[in-house]
Amino acid sequence: ALKDVPSLQLTILKDEVYTNEEMGENVRHIKIRFFSTTWFGVDIWNEADIYIPTTIPPERRGYGAMTHADKYDYDGSQYSIYYGFGERTALLADIPVMICNCKIPAQSYGYQGETELARSFRTLMMDDGNVEREIAYPLTKIYIRALTAFSTLDAAQKPTKFITAGSSKRGLTQWVLTAV
Q1: Is the dihedral of CA 147, 151, 152, 155 positive or negative?
Q2: Host H or E run for residue 22
Q3: What does pTM read for this prediction?
Q4: Distance, CA of 129 to CA of 175 (rounded, Å)
Q5: 133: which of 7, 22, 42, 119 lies 20 to 30 Å off by Cα?
Q6: Are 148 and 46 contacting, i.e. CB atoms less than 8 angstroms apart?
């Protein structure tokens, strides 16, 4: 069911082609929204931005890269993980790149943020033995759903081989994702 395309309820929020001024190359930007999973009674929806070079060499077709970001800019700087990393990496590597806002809505569980939620649920897991409380569990599902959505996009050449990245909670998720 994780790779069931109709259950994604995939919506394209934006689809545009423009020129990257710095590199002078055209890039297609598609923003999507999709249903990821239900975790302890909360439906989790996520959004992602996909940057696609308008020309993908034949030997690069079928590849894609994905990482997570939840902000457009960090530390008030002009650097954007979406445009600075996503768009540039897509153009430099000649492959589609997805930047997924793969978050769990901690406030829906009564917590201020994911770290607090993860810490509390990990304590509950140690008490009741329910391994589904480990935050890597829903995050892995979210990543699988994001990659499934990514692989359905004709414009992205329907990638089937992925490079994924993450740090902290999503770093742990990479280990679980590789094993699934």
Answers
A1: positive
A2: none
A3: 0.88
A4: 21
A5: 7
A6: no
